[in-house]
Amino acid sequence: MKMGKGKLAKKFLAACLGLVFVVSSFSLGAMGDSGQTLKEKFSDNLAEAGTVASTDRYYFYVKQEYDANGYKSVEDANIVIDVMAPTQQVAAGEVFSLSGVSQDTARVDTGLDFMGEGTLLWPDDVESYSWSVNVPEEGLYEIQIEYLPLDGKGTTIQRSVAIDGVVPYTEAYNIPFVRQWEDYGEIRYDNMGDEIRQKKREVRQWSTISVCDNDGYYSEPMLFYFTAGSHTITMGYVDEPMAIRSMALVSPKKYKSYAEVAQEYSEKGYKAAEAEVIKFQAEETLRKSDQILHRTYDSDPLCEPDPKNAELLNTIGGSNWRYGNQEITWQFEVPQDGLYQIGMRVGQWWNDGLPSYRMIKIDGEVPFEELLNYGFDYVQDWQFVTLGESESDGAYLFYLTEGEHTINMRAVMGPLTSIAQEVMTCTLKISEIYRKIIMITGTNPDVNYEYDLDKTIPNILEDFTYLADKLEELSGILTGISVKKPSMANNFDTIIVQLRDMVKRPDTIARKIDEIYNAQTSLGNYITTLKTQYLQLDYFTVSPPETPEPRHTAGFFKKAEYTWINFLRSFTKDYDTVGNVYDPDANKTIDLWVSRGTDWAEIIKQLADDEFTPESGIQVNMNIMPSGQLSAGAVNALMLAINSGRAPDVASGVDATSPVEYAIRGAAADLSMFEGYDEVVARFYPTIMTPYTYRGGVYALPEQMDFQVLIYRKDILAEHGIRIPDTWQDLYEKVLPVLNQNGLEFMPSGFPLFLYQNGGAYYNADGTMSGLDTPEAYTAFKEWTEQYTSYGMPIEANFFNRFRNGEMPMGIIGYADYIKVTTAAPELFGRWDISVVPGHVMESGEVDRSVGTLAGASIMILEDSDMKEESWEFVKWWTSASVQEEFGREVEAMLGVEARWNSANVEAFENSSWDADHKDVILRQLMWAKEQPVVLGGYYTSRHITNAWTRVVTGNTIPRDSLEQAVKDINKELRNKQEEYGAVSDEGDE
């Protein structure tokens, strides 16, 4: 019988004992001559909103301080806090006392008949509540809260917690209160025989939790230290509305070991059940905490239901069940009282050889401590796991009474938490050392110069030695708990050699600055890897003890059979089509081409089949096109289809510059001619329509939009006393000098920002000549090039990596980099923020913050379509706020935050699940967005502007001369295209 933890459990226990010593010495011990710990050396102690906490004061280290100070958990505590008697409320920037004030405003009618009296409603316009509590005994407590999610964006509710005005550790800045979801509706299949994914709806119910972290680092609730006496607990709004019915300080729960529980079974005379094996499918869930947890398809021959000849959603989890705190609940029924063992068919071929951990509850409770962090070993095929300690010790037994029960599994990091926290600490330290080095050497040190960095940077060699020792310990621990040596352990070994070599030869440090940079990047990436806890489930069994495990691995011939069947099926199934395929000759059937991934396309198709077709009677056939196959200007699938008379009716995912190019060639329909156009176009920012407009016609509608914002590292700016620049003059005079003095850089913006902020334009009014021959355009071009020639801004840079290591703590970014920083740099949590971009002061005194490049992907109707009216109905439906919101939720539910849909529909964007404060900044900046028109021959404009910039920055050409040459080149190209298409006018002469 194979157990989930296997023999690695004992190896891991020994490794953890070693880690306890290492962690203690690393976080609490002395470091070099300063006597500081490595952790203390780079704490920043930021203060915000009346509450303070170091942004790198993680609970992992605070818990060690609790232990070092001898703080104990309080026994038998249950201190009830009256949630309807907050002492202070902060709303709309105003602070006022609630003592003696009627609480009627806190009771809002939600239409829910189970709210009851004494319920505090917390909408999104209340920033915080504070409560007084009298604590009779000093010690450690859990904060227990009973809550109800209210209608919002459908994302996890989050609040911060401060004690006496102090946020005690970083994780307390975003405490999660999860929502619960369920699948609903009958299981359906498309006319190709493939299963259609069910929809999800929220399960509205009261839940009681003890405050925990947001990332699943810790299986047990986080503890808060209170002295005896009066204290104030403040909860701050972070995201989403909620209701609170009760709050209390309670004693931390203590868990018995399985041996103790088994002894109790024996003492109570519990006997093994005599029943048949109970099997239930893992994809048939009761509830789940995240919309991303949906059924998945697996073609393995032994998966249930049998996937032969069709794509059936026969498993759950996999890449969707990888984030901390994601939990799934199943329900099952046993026929009689007794002791049972629980097994499951699982797939765990991720994590590079490391175990994947889950906290397991039966009927809402963890039955014994071994299930707080239960590890599923890495195996490259499906495996059957019977919950247990080891093969020799046998399976865990669970006493179940006759009737219904639940099993719940929550993704946690378990023992990997300590490793991840130490890697994060090493990452931040290396980043700090790197910044100190480039402050002296710059980013391109002179290899022949002796910088004496071991003398100019205190304790650098001691730091390198300590880091090497730490990474060596972590490498050994990773290897010890893995079935194979993880690739990251090999990376650790490489970094160790590099660090030790620099200690031996300090004169090489400056020459090896790239190695330090790469080490920081590699370690930072590994934090994200450690946080992903993949697991895929096929089915569960609940059976009497000693029941043999079922066959769970398909043999070679069985796999070969299914592979052959799928191969033969590929000759009859069109894998470019999505979902139901309708008769193209039938009435009201439109053909839609989508240039997006399969997952995106499947959601669009399902929404169309479920909502659009029943409402309109119009059927939609969908084909997926590879990236770039809908863009004009090159030979592609859409261009070939147009020329051959086989173009679709609608094209979605078309880049912003292509619709007008198609229109110039008579291939795109003018959407402004359709009924209801004015109402539809009002859904978008007016300026976003610029690239789709040509000679009075509009040839596409936007689907997505980009944005530009100023992003900055709060910790680094605070360290150097830098304020956020309001104008470019502020940047040049107050920010750049400080950055340059410390070897840091600013990520500049492109030409459109300067052109629009200076009042310039790309073309004249009718788009026939360049508009870059104006004083405003020259001023913009000169300022743009001076950022490189005068201020030394980098010509080319990987902004994400440089922002991550602190070398470039400020810059102007768009949607892609924003998402990357949000999702791929966990070590920067709480260390960065965004603001509107710097601007230029206008004559009115207002600051012009104009930016360019707003438009993203678009949707267009082809001119040759015989179904234009039907296509227009689809376009109207697809770009509506409700559909865009639903699509965005489904995409994020399926693929995660990394795939967040940045809808061009303003209402949909406002209702999306962006961080509330960040969304406010983005919306304010979008009000200044402008767009470049698309004109005949205009695709050469950017090339000639780039050439002009190159002549100035790398060739020392005078800016005015270079820009004048660019204007001549642009006008020549415009004239050529105008002549080619017969669009030359007298005003178009040069």
Notes on the structure:
This protein is α+β, with helices and mostly antiparallel strands and 990 residues long. The strands form 12 sheets. Strands 19, 21, 22, 24, 27, 30 and 32 form a 7-stranded antiparallel β-sheet that branches. Strands 3, 6, 8, 15, 16 and 18 form a 6-stranded antiparallel β-sheet that branches. β12 and β13 form a beta hairpin. The radius of gyration is 31 Å and the shape is globular. The protein starts with 7 loop residues before the first helix and ends in a 10-residue tail after the last helix.
Helix content, binned percent: 25-40%
Low-confidence stretches: 1-55, 92-113
Strand content is 15-25%
Q: Work out the number of β strands.
A: 45
Task: Name a few traits of the molecule.
990 residues, alpha+beta, seven-stranded antiparallel β-sheet, six-stranded antiparallel β-sheet, 25 helices, 45 strands, globular
Please outline what is shown here:
The protein is of the alpha+beta class and 990 residues long.
Secondary-structure blueprint:
Layout (H helix, E strand, L loop, with lengths): L7 H21 L18 E2 L2 E2 L6 H10 L9 E4 L6 E4 L2 E4 L22 E3 L3 E10 L3 E11 L7 E7 L11 E3 L3 E4 L3 E2 L5 E2 L2 E4 L4 E4 L13 E3 L2 E11 L2 E9 L7 H11 L9 E4 L5 E2 L6 E2 L18 E4 L8 E8 L3 E10 L8 E7 L11 E3 L6 E4 L1 E3 L3 E2 L2 E3 L2 E10 L3 H26 L11 H4 L3 H22 L5 H18 L8 H19 L3 E9 L12 H14 L19 E6 L3 H19 L2 E6 L12 H7 L6 E5 L3 H7 L12 H5 L11 E2 L2 E2 L2 E2 L6 E5 H7 L7 H14 L4 E2 L3 H7 L17 H15 L9 H7 L4 E4 L1 H10 L7 E4 L4 E2 L5 E2 L9 E4 L6 H11 L2 H15 L10 H5 L5 H11 L14 H13 L5 H22 L10
Parallel strand pairs: 33-34, 33-35, 40-41
Antiparallel strand pairs: 1-2, 3-18, 4-5, 4-7, 6-18, 7-17, 8-15, 8-16, 8-18, 9-10, 9-17, 11-14, 12-13, 19-32, 20-23, 21-22, 22-32, 23-31, 24-27, 24-30, 24-32, 25-26, 25-31, 28-29, 35-45, 36-37, 38-45, 39-41, 39-42, 43-44
